[in-house]
Amino acid sequence: MRKHRWVVGLIASLIIVAMGFIIQVEHGPGEEERVIIDYTLNQYSAIACFDTAGFTNNIDETTYGEVDDHSVFLPESSCTAVELQSQRGPLWFAWFM
């Protein structure tokens, strides 16, 4: 049995790695993702899309979790919707990307 312990370990490792690519999970922006909200327009923008947003001076910075809880705010553009979109993919991508 001692001779074949490394084979068992190798097979177990390969199964764990393969399961990481087989198991599909939903992953996307975290609750702590920063967004900019405009209280006048009732819209929010991802940080990457803020330069092209036509916001007024009545803005604030908050987290995506707080914005997602309120149905008052809408995404400012398709750029924001794409940046904060949830995706379905392998478990490894959700953990390491």
Description:
With 97 residues, this protein is α+β, with helices and mostly antiparallel strands. It has one domain. The protein contains four helices and six strands, in the order H-E-E-E-E-H-E-H-E-H. It has a four-stranded mixed sheet with strand order 4-2-3-5. Strand 2 and strand 3 form a beta hairpin. The chain is rod-shaped. The chain starts with a helix and ends with a helix.
SSE inventory with pairings:
Layout: H1 5-22, E1 24-27, E2 34-38, E3 43-46, E4 59-63, H2 64-69, E5 74-75, H3 78-83, E6 87-90, H4 91-96
Parallel strand pairs: 3-5
Antiparallel strand pairs: 1-6, 2-3, 2-4
What is this entry, summarized?
The protein has four helices and six strands. The chain has 97 residues and is an alpha+beta fold. The chain is rod-shaped, with a radius of gyration of 21 Å.
Strand content: 15-25%
Strand order of the largest sheet: 4-2-3-5
The stretches of 5 or more residues where confidence is low (pLDDT under 50) are: none
Number of helices: 4
Amino-to-carboxy terminus distance: 39 Å
Number of strands: 6
Keywords:
alpha+beta; two-stranded antiparallel sheet; single chain; 4 helices; 97 residues; 37% helix
